[in-house]
Task: inverse folding
């Protein structure tokens, strides 16, 4: 691979980050880390969306400026992603000067091209969506289906983007590229939405919304969310209508843009049309993930059941985010909804990370120390059919990631660990040692440790700290690219001493984990 560029949706800063936000960032980070194991040129973008009427109103209510409010809440997202070890390359804020100037130029270019025009408009505006809705978008009670409130009737003179001009080109692209929208079953939803699309408002009158990017040469208008927020994916790379940066040329188009299924319409229709209007390449894939429910109930402010990632970590006294990362990344099949519950979280991570993977490494190394003083002898190094299974697992995991099937890829890693555990049970190295079959005993331990090096590389995107701790005990180079992995990592000689062995993940209900500082 020559490069890999992935983006998340940018989060609206009118509230604090919850595990729905965290799910998307973890999912994208796992994808990014995996492809970083396949190319030296991987780039991940995330950030915050900071303009609009809700921020204008909320900041006024608490007596601070919109920018002060944005600064305060953007930091909450930055802190949350640091807590979860989200290894993004860049964090963009739509109040950044570079973004602001680029968006103004984009708007001006589209206006000069004739793709933007001014018109009076009366429409149904949902402040929760920050969007104008049509009658067909509403539920049977006349409410926004996402926010359960009736939109207000708004009359303004706005600038409009000729979305209808690009309708046929978008339909053609989606039909000719069946893997463009992931999962593919969502493509029909988008095609249905395209049937009745209209031109969209891309500005707001300052008499109604003044917190936004000014339209050049028109002091009465600010640029609306579609051109402002959606353009972040290219302005972050240094896109400029006159002189795009080398970084933009290197990384665009995006390989995959990760978003929630509720904003698929905007990214697979509005965003594509804007790119077409700018004569820019389209992203290769749009991954629309599902929602995360809490104990099978959708998160909402009215129910008060939004859970922050920080509260989960604090409630389990976790000092590292790996368990939470693993659980969230594997909580749903590709594109489907997932669920969070404390009981399921504890049960799953204890089973997979502590009992299965962590315990396998710990007891194998402990037996190596007990029976051989931590030394790998030449006669232990022998080919085993499990090596073929381990190498096949690398290809299976890569295949799933090629289709952004993150949970499915993790299942292949779990299956390999289960096979290794069964191999230890079936061959009982403790019995072989008791019977003084030391070469056979050593060969069993060597086989497991060699395969565990592959497990380390494959689990790294999900659990970077756990993987690094495993690699440290195995003396394995965790920076090895997946295509360069060879089954000759465990060398003849001293591998480890008793003092160097430590559990890579403690069960969440263990006394040590509870009291961990």
Result:
């Amino acid at each position: 691979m020559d490069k890999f560029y992935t983006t998340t949706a940018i989060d609206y800063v009118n509230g604090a980050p919850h595990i729905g936000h965290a799910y998307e960032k973890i999912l994208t980070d796992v994808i990014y880390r995996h492809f970083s194991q396949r190319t030296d040129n991987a780039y991940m973008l995330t950030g915050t969306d900071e303009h609009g009427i809700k921020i204008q109103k909320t900041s006024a209510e608490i007596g601070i400026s919109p920018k002060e409010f944005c600064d305060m809440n953007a930091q909450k997202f930055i802190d949350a992603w640091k807590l979860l070890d989200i290894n993004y390359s860049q964090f963009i804020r739509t109040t950044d000067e570079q973004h602001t100037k680029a968006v103004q130029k984009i708007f001006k270019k589209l206006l000069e091209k004739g793709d933007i025009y001014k018109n009076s408009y009366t429409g149904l505006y949902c402040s929760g969506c920050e969007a104008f809705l049509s009658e067909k978008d509403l539920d049977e009670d006349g409410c926004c289906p996402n926010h359960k409130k009736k939109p207000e009737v708004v009359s303004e003179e706005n600038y409009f983007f000729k979305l209808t001009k690009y309708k046929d080109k978008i339909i053609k692209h989606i039909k000719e590229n069946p893997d463009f929208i992931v999962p593919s079953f969502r493509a029909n939803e988008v095609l249905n939405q395209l049937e009745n699309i209209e031109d969209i408002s891309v500005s707001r009158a300052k008499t109604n919304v003044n917190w936004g990017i000014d339209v050049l040469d028109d002091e009465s208008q600010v640029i609306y969310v579609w051109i402002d927020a959606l353009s972040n994916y290219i302005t972050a790379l240094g896109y400029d209508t006159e002189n795009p940066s080398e970084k933009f040329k290197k990384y665009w188009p995006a390989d995959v843009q990760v978003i929630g299924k509720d904003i698929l319409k905007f990214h697979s229709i509005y965003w594509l049309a804007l790119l077409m209007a700018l004569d820019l390449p389209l992203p290769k894939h749009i991954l629309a993930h599902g929602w995360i429910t809490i104990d099978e109930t959708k998160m909402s402010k009215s129910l008060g059941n939004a859970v922050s990632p920080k509260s989960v970590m604090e409630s389990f006294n976790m000092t590292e985010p790996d368990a939470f990362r693993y659980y969230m990344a594997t909580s749903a099949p590709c594109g489907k909804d997932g669920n969070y519950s404390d009981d399921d979280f504890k049960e799953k991570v204890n089973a997979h990370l502590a009992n299965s993977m962590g315990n396998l490494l710990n007891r194998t190394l402990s037996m190596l120390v007990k029976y051989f003083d931590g030394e790998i002898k030449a006669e232990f190094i022998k080919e085993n059919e499990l090596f073929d299974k381990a190498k096949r697992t690398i290809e299976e995991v890569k295949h799933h990631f090629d289709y952004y099937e993150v949970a499915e890829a993790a299942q292949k890693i779990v299956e390999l660990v289960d096979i290794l555990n069964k191999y230890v049970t079936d061959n009982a190295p403790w019995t072989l040692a008791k019977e003084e079959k030391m070469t056979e005993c050593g060969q069993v331990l060597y086989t497991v440790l060699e395969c565990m090096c592959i497990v380390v590389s494959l689990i790294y995107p999900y659990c970077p700290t756990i993987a690094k701790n495993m690699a440290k005990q195995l003396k394995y180079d965790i920076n090895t690219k997946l295509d360069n992995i060879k089954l000759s990592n465990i060398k003849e000689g001293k591998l480890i001493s008793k003092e160097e062995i430590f559990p890579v993940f403690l069960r969440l209900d263990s006394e040590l984990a509870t009291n961990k500082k």
